[in-house]
Design goal:
Belongs to the UDP-glycosyltransferase family. Keywords: Glycosyltransferase, Transferase. The protein has 209 residues and is α/β, with parallel strands linked by helices. It has a domain of 145 residues: Glycogen Phosphorylase B (Rossmann fold), CATH 3.40.50.2000. The protein contains 8 helices and 6 strands. Strands 3-2-1-4-5-6 form a 6-stranded parallel sheet, sandwiched between helices. Strand 1, helix 1 and strand 2 form a beta-alpha-beta unit. Helix 1 packs across helix 5, helix 3 packs across helix 6 and helix 7 crosses helix 8. The longest helix has 22 residues.
Amino acid sequence: MVYVSFGSIGRLSPPQMADLARTLETSGRNFMWVIKGSDGHPEEFKEEPVMERRMVVRGWALQVTILSHGAVGGFITHCGWNSTLEGVCVGVPMVVWPLFAEQFLNEKLVVDVLRVGVRVGVERPSGLVEGEAIEKALEEVMEGGEEGVLRRMRARELGEMARMAVEVGGSSYVNMTRLIEYVSEYIQVYGKEAEEDYLLLSFTREVPP
């Protein structure tokens, strides 16, 4: 199954949504597409009220839970940082479709550094992507021959590394433990009022070492 989501604030133009809808429809693949309530429903999907291969979710979805399901074989994403991390941590290869801001840098990380993603080819914020480019990127992620196999293996390895990081003794576990210990010691030294001070700390105020 292909999971499709462009994050909390990402939006596609109506023509772009139509191109993506047609591509997903003709791909023959099962897919789940999370669409914001204000984006409307793709016209291509309105003729068939009963959907056997597709699911359109309006509003918010349990993204990590969905991505973690074994049936998900690819993730079409806008490359927001949260979505990028979630895709990497669950070990799912990605079709990367940045929309604006730092998402283009995240695209380079996913494609060129981690090598677990394929570009759709958008070159600038809100740039249009032709249906052929979407189809090509989707096929590379879901099939992709030998390189596709290697990409999927790298994605699984990164997912395993992420899981190990949050286990007892892992790097994330250790760093979070140190942060909790630091805050606890700070509160013990500077009093109960320091607990509220710590939460309201501004960039203009220094935290004692």
